[in-house]
Amino acid sequence: MTVQKDLEKKIQSFTINIYKGFKVEINKIFIPVKIALFCWFAGAYTMTVFTPVHLKSKGFTIAHLSVFTATSVLLQCLSNVVSGIIVDKTGRSKPVLLTYLVMFIAISLAFTQMPSVKECKSSKIRFQCHKDDNESRLTVEAPCTLLTDNYGDISCLIDNITNLNTSSYNEECKSLNHISSTLNIGLEKKQPANDSDVCNYDANSQNQTINTSELCKGENCKSFEMNCTSKEFMNCNSRREFWIIIYGIMINFLYFTHTTIYRLFDVIVTSLTYEYNADFGRQRVFSILGSLSGPPLTGLILHKSGFTADFKYSLAFVMSSAFTLLSALALSMVSVKAHVPATKMWKQSLELVKKLDVFLFLLLVIVMGSTFGFQSTYSSWYLQDLGASDLLLGINRGAAALYGLPFLYSSKWFINKFGERNLFVLGLLGHAIYNFSFALLKEPWFALAVQLTVILTYHLFWVAVMHNIEKIAPECLQATVKILAGTLHFSIGKVITTMVGGIVMSALGGRTAYTVMGSVVSVYGIIYGIYVLVLHLRRSRKFTPGAEEPKEDVH
């Protein structure tokens, strides 16, 4: 039997000699998995990085973004859990994931066609009348940015006309108020933009019933101002409120497909690694590499594209869609084993949650997710208050990903050596060290050393979470529990600390907020540590001296 397994392993894998006997064995089955993970994380992180600036270029404020993000959380949680139930009910995860990938691509491309929602604001523009060869000529003195080209139209409210020559209207000037409610005026730029911010334009009325000479009639109306809007310059939207609602709905759909795809990838990849006795952490290496590659590559393309700001960031959604399409194509080549469809899910779920070990595990995920969310949300803000440069903020985020690569590559060894529960305790300890260190931090560059704790608090922790679920959850609930864990950690936990942690931080300061978070995670670390110690003592009492102590299941 062992010989047969070794033969199968040799057939489905190949070895690359690196240096002086150091070899890397690559499983052929996981090559498309690695490509799918790399491309998805490249596309997903590209979307995460550039969506805020895309919305800003379209006329949204940070308040809009906050509302969109907050309202999407409930839909994300609901979508995640429902997706897990569908996978367990049908026994098929790959078609569900491919469906979400196609939805993500469609929504991303839809954003490239969405209009601006900039408000149509009017501004006072000065008009002057000049008489050349017995003909009246109307000129405009206005900012050079009023038109993007040398020709364009503006729309002016005639009822807001103001005479500049006298303090009050005379009868000749006042009669202009009754000509029309709006006046369309064509402009031709006469003075190109140079060092000055103000340009001269020739103006002509586009209204058939009103000509330029009529606007310039009367000695006291030679100079006047009107409230005017240049739709070409403002790129404004007269149906702004309607499109803001549409954007909000689209952002909600974009975010819930985005987070659900992450969770479904966890389901598929962990199932494959257990089926083929592979290392989940090594697959995560390609996820991290993708997240580090996608945004810089997209940023470089945006920098070289030469597009204007209003259309520039639409290209980021095209890049995100392209990466996601490659991920879907790679995933379609992966053979994912279907499992027996689940029955009596509610009954089994209740029985599972009633177990003390499972209850403490889910509470652990919430606590870890809460402090992780607080750190990822407020660390850059806090470091900047301490005097950190933009360079340090960028390096600090990049270091968090790079630190974990060698440990992810050997994560299976750590799982077998320490066990999942012991790694959970170390993860809680890592969060405590991080929070208390930041509370005492005075020199922002020391944050790079503190960031080493991310190895325990995120990289190894999440591998241990997926391994633990394979052990504690029945096969019919694997997808649901994995997705639930991801929802509790990355969605629910982040919402809790974004709200509560932000209030503490604004009221009492960053140092106090980090001290509070460190205290919370330390308390639960003591509770969970005692539970693990009790389990260890109970296990040791069941065996007589000299008997072999049971080992953790190795997968």
Describe how the helices and strands are arranged.
Layout: H1 2-11, E1 13-19, E2 22-27, H2 31-57, H3 62-90, H4 94-111, E3 123-132, E4 135-143, E5 151-163, H5 171-174, E6 182-189, E7 198-205, H6 212-215, E8 223-229, H7 231-234, H8 240-275, H9 280-305, H10 309-312, H11 314-332, H12 345-353, H13 356-385, H14 390-409, H15 411-418, H16 420-440, H17 447-450, H18 454-472, H19 478-508, H20 510-541
Antiparallel strand pairs: 1-2, 3-4, 3-8, 4-7, 5-6, 5-8, 6-7
Helix pairs in contact: 2-9, 2-11, 3-8, 3-19, 4-8, 4-11, 8-19, 9-11, 9-14, 13-16, 13-18, 13-19, 13-20, 14-18, 15-16, 16-18, 16-20, 18-19, 19-20
Structure description:
The protein is α+β, with helices and mostly antiparallel strands and 555 residues long. It is built from 20 helices and eight strands. The protein has helices at 2-11, 31-57, 62-90, 94-111, 171-174, 212-215, 231-234, 240-275, 280-305, 309-312, 314-332, 345-353, 356-385, 390-409, 411-418, 420-440, 447-450, 454-472, 478-508, 510-541; strands at 13-19, 22-27, 123-132, 135-143, 151-163, 182-189, 198-205, 223-229. The chain has a six-stranded antiparallel β-barrel with strand order 3-4-7-6-5-8. It has a two-stranded antiparallel sheet with strand order 1-2. Strand 6 (182-189) and strand 7 form a beta hairpin. It is elongated. The model is unreliable at 1-11, 166-172 and 546-555 (pLDDT under 50).
